[in-house]
Amino acid sequence: MFGIEHSGVEPDLVSVAKSLGGGFPISGVIGRADLMDSVPPGGLGGTYAGAPLACAAALAVLDIIEEEKLIDRANTMGERLKARINGWHKRKDILPV
């Protein structure tokens, strides 16, 4: 779901926001347990904290991503695109930039 999954890098924290809520105001932080547990209760709250409609929208977005296998589709389309782009170097009608 995240670009970091293709990089071999394990971040300390990941922030998520706009696309998670499908247009509703929501954001979140994902992180290692030792970091997340070090913040006192309410320390990660903010303007959007606890908005029921935005939380429902975010859950619906995650359900759709899973049910429609959108991550698999993105990976398949990415591989197709990469194969086409890699094939362009064989063409004689495209000049290097």
Walk me through this protein's architecture:
The chain has a two-stranded antiparallel sheet with strand order 1-2. The model has no long low-confidence stretch (mean pLDDT 87). With 97 residues, it is mainly alpha-helical. The chain is 39% helix and 8% strand. It contains three helices and two strands; from the N terminus they run ββααα. The chain has one domain (3-90). Its cofactor is pyridoxal 5'-phosphate. Its EC number is 2.6.1.19.
Physical arrangement of strands within the biggest beta sheet = 1-2
Low-confidence stretches: none
From N to C, what is the helix and strand string? Answer: EEHHH
- CA radius of gyration is 19 Å
Distance separating the two termini: 32 Å
Summarize the main sheet: 2 strands, antiparallel
**Residues in helices, as a percent range:** 25-40%
Domain count: the total is 1
Which shape, going by the Cα principal axes?
elongated
If helices are DSSP runs of H or I spanning 4 or more residues, what is the number of helices?
3
Question: How much is the average pLDDT?
Answer: 87
Q: Name the structural class.
A: mainly alpha
Organism: Acetobacter tropicalis
EC number: 2.6.1.19
GO molecular function, one term: 4-aminobutyrate:2-oxoglutarate transaminase activity
Keywords: Aminotransferase, Pyridoxal phosphate, Transferase
